[in-house]
Amino acid sequence: MDEKVISLLQKCNINIKSLYELQGTLINRDIFLNLPLYESLENDINELKEFLSSTTLTSLQKTAKEKQSWPLLNLIRQLLKIYNFEMKPIRKCNGYDLNKKKNLLDFFRLINALLLLLLLLLLLLLYHLKLIHMYLFPHHSYIY
């Protein structure tokens, strides 16, 4: 199934060879608003239905195109959620127009929630090890 998801992402101009490469990736939101691109992925979506249930993944349902405003965005978001990725929205300024109004670009940063949790647990463990060391060796000087 991983290969099918990677293939689908590559067809959305997200050039990766492995799902691990997605961590921290910044993706332009406009890619996911492209209805003709979504329609061209119909065969890929049908292949995904062999592995995944359309009961829980609404983006795989037959009526997704009619009922959802941005079916490709929902499809990618739901597929990445299976792999513990979250799509965090980010807005970046792209200069100003003639009326001095900001031109904004919308992106998504892909963050693996499981990886983030492991990192936080590691930091917590290191903090507790430092406290244990301070308790066992109270006469050592520490820099805080």
Shape: flat
Helix content percent band: 40-55%
Strand count, sense and barrel status of the largest sheet are:
3 strands, antiparallel
- The fraction of residues assigned to DSSP E strands is 15-25%
* Succession of helices and strands: HEHHHHEEH
Helical segment count: 6
Low-confidence stretches: none
The total number of structural domains is 1
- Output the radius of gyration: 21 Å
Tell how many strands the DSSP assignment holds: 3
Keywords: Membrane, Transmembrane, Transmembrane helix
Transmembrane segments: 110-129
Tell me what the structure shows.
This protein is of the alpha+beta class and 144 residues long. It has one domain. It has six helices and three strands, in the order H-E-H-H-H-H-E-E-H. It has a three-stranded antiparallel β-sheet. Strand 2 and strand 3 form a beta hairpin. The mean pLDDT is 87. Keywords: Membrane, Transmembrane, Transmembrane helix.
